[in-house]
What does this fold into?
Amino acid sequence: MKTLKIAALGLTHDHVWENLTLLRQLSGVQLVGAFDSHVELRERFAREYSAPAFTSANELLRSTAPDAVLIFADNRGGAELACAALRHRAHVLIEKPMAADAAGARKILRVAKANRRRVMVNWPIAWWPQLQHALKLASDGKLGRLWQVRYRAAHAGPKAMGCSRFFSDWLYDPARNGAGAFMDYCCYGAALARVTLGQPQRVSAFIARLGNHAIRAEDNGLLLMHYPKALGISEGSWTQAGYMTSYVTVLYGTKGTLLVEPGDKGRLLIATAEQPAGVPVRVPPLPKHMRNAVAHFVRALRTGENFTDLCTAEVGRDTQEILEAGLKVAHSGHTLH
It folds into this structure.
């Protein structure tokens, strides 16, 4: 088995450290280096992973010639790093939502196609066993026809959640993030709606700054996705106290309703006409390559298997299109009185 050389481009997204640790646990993989513009992050990487840290992405790509890269930078810079890596003929795993705007997502796909390389978008919720099973049940028609998909992501804000200053700085910056809470958190519901219902015919959206902190970005967003016979609802908030209702997915069908609790150990509940109050569903254990992003990415590169639907680049691009349409509506201020 050939050893896969993998590098990290960007270290400002806090999810990078967990994924690098998981990567190091895989056999047949060599972590060959990382790039970031912040000296503190380069020093941490070199100290914790015993690999070189570079001050230039191009220098890393030339020097190490990685087979694949993990990108954990800000949304705008990450899209450019993805294109640079693809031009160096490296496959790409990039953290959600893929880019800061639809143009960035479309560019990644063009460059990937031109260089015959693969791109996977990591949605952290994709590795929850109960969500994977819920999506399979819905796809198999167990709920009948889906008529609504709903997801809410919320907490008290990046700084209150303990995000590093490197992460918080760009999350609060609409230029690097693409927006604020709307981009950071409404993206999840948009991706779930895209996978289960397809691309919406039209969207409605609202954004607001409802907290007491002074930031340039919105801290709350609501995205409605309209389909001929269905509706997608995605909520994002950086001002919620506590976790009740947060990170919950609900799939509504003509024959039943699935409620997906969050986290690795969340339950999956189903309600039907016979069991209207809802009962737990047994969730089968996941194979190793479906338990986290890097295991799935490496497995797919080795075998040629498809990425799981939620994590394909095409779904990532379409999600970006939905978000951009929503932001245009939200900024237009068009409402009925």
Remarks:
- The chain has two domains: 4-122+290-300, 126-286.
- The chain has a mean pLDDT of 97.
